[in-house]
Amino acid sequence: MNVSNRTIFCNDNLHILRGLDSNAIDLIYLDPPFNSNRNYSAPIGSEAAGAAFKDTWTLSDVDNAWHGEIADREPALYQAIHAAELTHSKSMKSYLIMMAVRLLEMKRVLKETGSIYLHCDPTASHYLKMLMDSVFGKDNFRDEIVWQRASGRAKGSQHKSRSLGRDTDCVFHYSKSKDFIHNTVTQTLTEAEILVKFPHTDSSGRRYNTNTPLFCQPSMGDRPNLCYEYKGVRNPHPSGWRVSKEKLIEMDKTCDIIWREGKRPLRKSYADQYKGKPIGNLWTDIPIAAGNERTGYPTQKPIALLDRIIKASTNKDETVLDPFCGCATTCVAAERLQRQWIGIDISPKATELVKHRLEKEVGFFGKVTSRDDIPKRSEKLPNWTTHKHTLYGKQEGTCNGCQTHFPFRNMTVDHIVPQKAGGTDHEDNLQLLCGACNSTKGTGTQAELIAKLKEQGVL
Ligand SMILES: C[S@@+](CC[C@H](N)C(=O)[O-])C[C@H]1O[C@@H](n2cnc3c(N)ncnc32)[C@H](O)[C@@H]1O
Ligand SMILES: [Zn+2]
Fold this sequence. Notes:
alpha/beta, Rossmann fold, DNA Binding (I), subunit A, 9-stranded mixed beta sheet, 3-stranded antiparallel beta sheet, 34% helix, binds S-adenosylmethionine, binds zinc ion
């Protein structure tokens, strides 16, 4: 990995992502801004709010270059974006292009065993899921987590908006491949839940229940090896006991069986041995950041949310990246769990807050690196001659512009996304063009080249 642990970048994440090594990150959590979230600092309804919003998602020059590239190289992704433009708006299209180019880079930097969690809300979640399907593949969709971040509304607000309250956010989990890291995460019970789940108390004060069956269901089929007699009790049907005779004797010794005259015995399950309930995709037990945890940073997410995500998808010492890290909640949660981390945010406020939060919440006074320069990828850059041969083979000697076959010596190596627009020297950004097509393309995009060739009647 070409960036050290505990680094926070203050820059546009697209530039930084492009500079990160491929296949180096174990987990990405992103909580990008959108619409209502965007103008958090300006009072709702103020003129500034409207103005700021209007300028947010328009195509910058870099996005323009990528717009063409997505159309050319990722047709499914482009169609998804196009559909959003038709059904929603041009501003949604711009937003999705902004997201799509970053998601493509995020996929590249993620390890094969890695996971990505995209936090969003109903404004764009349906479009973003299509983007995620296109970039990561529908078969790598793992979960849609519904996080309840609020409950109850101010009186009368429902009447005004004529819609139900928005109490939840949505977090999409995708993996890069089928071999992703997955740790089972459980949730401890509250005192009240324990009383309900374990209603009995034994003589030593231990709480227990008798819900776990001691006999198999007939639907589980015949199990001759589990059909035996113990203390005069036989299993009632050919499916047998749940446990072997040795195990049953052991359980009996520790008084974990309740014997009842003329009735089936019961098995005791104790609250103090309960491993916690496995969590589902509906998360209602994590409140928004409050009290000491609150930094005043708008849209701050709770550490407990990140704690759960990081535990589920990484192991100790693995690397977590948050490309929209805000007040660095992900970095704090990762530090607490002894994971390595990298944060990126365009706002200098995030950089300021990181050190402060780590000192305050983790007691960590070590070295946090803040930087705003673009890291250099340590991956080997192509040897141009070998590379030209590979590309020549791949393109079967045909120019990627005019589609004409040329001898090897007449071909030139071209950056598909121009270097000016942030395109790199890496293999995935190179192609062969004939000399004429290369000069027609100049510093433009591939889509512009194709348009020019059509205009000239070459295509
Ligand atoms: C919704 S907030 C993230 C909040 C964060 N999860 C937390 O708990 O504090 C989105 C963040 O993305 C940042 N941001 C927006 N565009 C960005 C870009 N192109 N590159 C890096 N950061 C960006 C904003 O400055 C903002 O802090
Ligand atoms: Zn050509």
